[in-house]
Design a protein that fits this description.
flat, four-stranded mixed β-sheet
């Protein structure tokens, strides 16, 4: 996708996973614990980790809050909400162990604001944000359409397509001419199903959702369709495979089309820059592209634990920067448009709210901002400030 020859024909592939995938079950439980805590204490410090496997959920992590919910009850309700009800993993019989403990005082003293210093970052790390003009939501097309395929499948399941079960994976390979996607090369759908369904049923499902999701003419005789290549997918979810929080960070972000700093998002309160700064970097990159200042933009932010301001900002526009502008000018406009301290990011984007459960499914980026503040980092309301700063 980053080939400099505009005439080049290339292929790029991204994958998505459904809400019933074991790793996504773990992410959803972790973000459920976070939201339940923030609902009681918006200033809570939470780092929730979840392991799910056959007949077992293990909750771990660190917390500091004025009030703490019943984590076991929250986790059990999350499984109910996901609709997972397998003999080897269901909300009635699954064992849930809670090993969440108090946050380290040494971390707290570095993060908390005092009369002498601003609130510091909750950890060191590097975070990336990316945007491009390949799709209306300014996301790379392969991951965007992989998410849309599984959303369409989930909508059918929730609408009553009874043979579909919650676990699934999709993979999309697109053909590019230069930097723009032009057609679908290969589609792969592996979807859990009931015992009476067949591979042909899954293939017909893939054909139907592909016709619904992709632009006219992208799918045709040139497209290879693969549906449940192993033949069947009856046992799924944590009953079949172990899941862990934070193991799908590429699915959560840009599908491999842009760099990732390595830190997971789910279960972390917004003082953790792994999450909040990644959201801020996406917000900045998206607004740059939305403003027409570049066709593609990647931003890196670097932080040190206990230090408020980012150590460095790196900006790359891949040769698409608007004529007459320099990267230095654009970086200066970024810094002037919003604060990039952890507290500044939280305030600007309104992150101290229980808004995180929806992020556990179908990606953290390229989503529609919600009425309760969900996906605030997807807004393009920073465009005027960026343009004023140039």
């Amino acid at each position: 996708m980053k080939n400099t020859s505009m005439a080049a024909t290339t292929l790029f592939t991204s994958e998505s996973v459904a809400p019933g995938h074991p790793d996504k079950v773990a992410d959803y439980i972790s973000d459920s614990l976070l939201d339940a805590t923030l609902a009681l204490d918006p200033e809570a410090r939470v780092a929730a980790e979840t392991l799910v496997t056959e007949n077992l959920v293990v909750l771990a992590g660190e917390i500091r809050a004025r009030a703490v919910p019943d984590f076991v009850a929250v986790a059990r309700q999350a499984i109910v909400d996901l609709g997972i009800d397998e003999p080897g993993f269901n909300p009635q019989t699954v064992e849930i162990q809670c090993h969440v403990h108090e946050q380290s005082a040494e971390i707290a003293q570095g993060v908390d604001a005092t009369t002498d210093k601003a609130e510091g970052a909750g950890d060191q790390g590097i975070m990336f944000g990316y945007a491009c003009n390949e799709t209306p939501v300014l996301m790379p097309a392969p991951i965007y359409y992989a998410h849309r395929l599984l959303e369409a499948c989930a909508a059918r399941r929730l609408a009553g397509l009874s043979w579909l079960r919650p676990d699934a994976k999709a993979q999309v390979t697109l053909e590019y001419q230069g930097h723009q996607p032009v057609r679908v090369h290969t589609l792969l759908l592996s979807h859990q199903h009931t015992r009476d369904a067949t591979q042909a049923d899954v293939l017909r499902l893939l054909q139907a959702v592909a016709a619904e999701v992709f632009p006219t003419g992208w799918v045709g005789g040139h497209t290879r369709l693969l549906a449940n290549p192993t033949g069947s997918f009856i046992l799924g979810g944590p009953a079949a495979d172990t899941g862990l929080t934070g193991r799908k960070i590429i699915v959560d972000s840009y599908g491999g089309a842009a760099r990732h700093g390595g830190g997971a998002f789910s279960g972390k309160d917004p003082t953790k820059v792994d999450r909040s700064a990644a959201y801020a970097a996406r917000y900045l990159a998206k607004n740059i592209v939305a403003a027409g200042l570049a066709e593609r933009c990647e931003i890196q932010l670097g932080y040190a634990i206990g230090v408020a301001e980012p150590l460095a900002i790196y900006l790359e526009t891949f040769g698409t920067l608007q004529k007459g502008l320099t990267a230095t000018q654009l970086e200066r406009a970024l810094r002037a448009s919003m604060p990039l301290t952890p507290q500044g990011i939280r305030t600007h984007l309104g992150l101290n709210r229980p808004i995180y459960r929806p992020t556990a499914h179908f990606g953290h980026f390229g989503r529609t901002p919600g009425p309760a503040g969900e996906f605030s980092w997807e807004k393009t309301d920073l465009v005027p400030a960026l343009l004023r700063g140039l």
